[in-house]
Specification:
The chain starts with 11 loop residues before the first helix and ends with a helix. With about 140 residues, the chain is mainly alpha-helical.
Length: about 140
C-alpha cells in the first residue's frame, strides 16, 4: 500500500467511506467469532442434551405407569372405561390450564425483540450514511 495516500491526506468523505467499510468488516468478523463460539458451546452441550433426552424418555415411561396406576386405583370403584375417562379428563384439564397460563404469561411479556437497541442501531447507521453523503459528520 505504498501508493495509497496517507491518512492525513485523505478527504473526510474518503475517511468516512473507509470507516464504513472497516466497520462492516469488523461486524462480519465479530459475527463469525460469535458463530464459532456458539458452535463450540453447542458441541459441549451435545452430551448433556442426550442425557436429558434419555431422562425425558424414562420420565414419559414413568408417567405412563402412573397413568395405569391411577386408572387401576379408580377402577376399584367404577368400570375400567370410566376410570380411564376420568384420568383422561383430568389430564386434559391440567393441559388446558397450563396452556392458558403460558399464553397469558407470553402476552404479558410482549415482544422479545430488543426494540431500543434496534432503533439505536438504525439511527447510528442513518447518521453515518448521512455523514458520508454530506461529506462530513456533524
Amino acid at each position: 500500500m505504498r501508493n495509497a495516500p496517507a491518512e492525513a491526506d485523505r478527504s473526510i468523505p474518503e475517511l468516512l467511506q473507509k470507516l464504513a467499510a472497516e466497520t462492516s468488516l469488523l461486524i462480519r468478523q465479530e459475527l463469525a467469532l460469535a458463530r464459532a463460539e456458539i458452535m463450540g458451546t453447542l458441541r459441549k452441550a451435545e452430551r448433556p442434551a442426550i442425557a436429558f433426552g434419555v431422562a425425558a424418555l424414562f420420565a414419559l415411561g414413568a408417567f405412563g405407569a402412573l397413568t395405569a396406576l391411577l386408572i387401576a386405583a379408580i377402577a376399584v370403584a367404577v368400570p375400567v372405561w370410566a376410570a380411564a375417562l376420568i384420568v383422561t379428563v383430568l389430564y386434559v384439564a391440567i393441559a388446558v390450564a397450563a396452556v392458558v397460563s403460558g399464553r397469558t404469561a407470553l402476552k404479558q411479556m410482549g415482544s422479545p425483540l430488543p426494540k431500543q437497541t434496534i432503533k439505536t442501531v438504525k439511527d447510528d447507521v442513518a447518521t453515518v450514511q448521512a455523514g458520508v453523503r454530506r461529506g462530513g459528520m456533524s
